[in-house]
Amino acid sequence: MNEVIENVLSDETYTTNEERVEAIKKGLATLVIPKDKYNDLSAKLKTAESNYNSLSTEFDEFKKSKMTDDEKREAELKQLELDKKTTATDKSRLAVKELLFDNGIRISDEDNELKETLSNIISDDYEKSIKLANSFISIMKKAQDETKKQTVTDLLNDTPKPTVSTPNSGTVSNLDAFQEKFDEAVKNGDSVGQAMYTRMIQEEQAKLNTPSV
After folding, report:
1. What pLDDT is stored for residue 129 in this prediction?
2. Is 41 contained in some domain?
3. pLDDT tens digits, one per residue of 13-35
4. Residue 130 in domain
5. Span 51-78, mean pLDDT?
6. Are residues 91 and 138 in the same domain?
7. Alpha helix (H) ranges present in 112-190?
8. Is residue 56 part of a domain?
9. Does the residue 53 lie in any domain?
10. Does residue 58 sit in helix, strand or coil?
């Protein structure tokens, strides 16, 4: 499509916009399948899929008709085992997702890495799946705690040391800086930030209220 448009726009034989528009319409017409032709192809595809499914069903029935009673029982047992495994895996998947959700771990469609990790955790073994999920949650929480600690450390290192106000100096403590960060967290709906800065404000107030020895 882009090639058609670029060719028309670079062709100096077209002197008016009307000529260029008409040329582009003709060029694009060769790239677009007419609706009736598309509907015809779509109908043929659906028919082919239906025929394939019918033939597949007939073939399965034919194979069953040639089986001995023992072979039929064996096939039924295999299918039963497969269904049992699928059901057990679905049960594990539901339990693991609920466990992650309850611990604040959300899985989005874009998070391919987390989805891959989840696929390695979930199996038809329910107890094993739950155990692996709990281990994963512990690792995630530890990583989050370390990140929070590092964030607080960085903030404290980047913030000037508190100064005590005097009637004439007019100096300000870190309370204003922390209060500003707290207000920003409230505005952004950041509950973690609100809790963190609340604690930092309380600690700062305690420092300023502690009498010097």
Report:
1. 92
2. no
3. 767 777 767 776 666 666 555 66
4. yes
5. 83
6. yes
7. 112-121, 126-158, 175-187
8. no
9. no
10. helix
Exposure on the CB side of residue 88, measured as CA atoms within 13 A: 14
Same domain? 127 vs 163: no
Domain that holds residue 182: 159-213
| Helix, strand, coil content of the chain in percent (nearest 5) | 75, 0, 25
Whether the model pTM is above 0.70: no
| Spatial distance between the Cα atoms of 47 and 198, rounded to a whole number of angstroms | 66
* 129 CB neighbour count, 10 Å cutoff: 22
196 with 137, same domain? no
Q: Using CA atoms, how far apart are residues 135 and 118, in angstroms rounded to an integer?
A: 12
Question: How many other C-beta atoms lie within 10 A of the C-beta of residue 155?
Answer: 16
Give the domain-ending residue among 143, 174, 192. Answer: 143
Tokens of 11: 């062709």
Residues 81 and 138 in one domain: yes
Residues 93 and 137 in one domain: yes
How far is 81 from 76, CA to CA, in rounded Å? Answer: 9
Q: 203 near 181, Cβ under 8 Å? A: no
**From the DSSP assignment, how many helices (H) and strands (E) are in the chain?**
8, 0
Residues 70 and 77: their CA atoms lie apart, in Å, by 11
Cα separation, 26 vs 2, whole angstroms = 14
Nearest to 61 by CA among 72, 51, 70: 72
| Domains identified in the chain, total number | 2
Would you mind telling me the total number of residues written for the chain in this entry?
A: 213
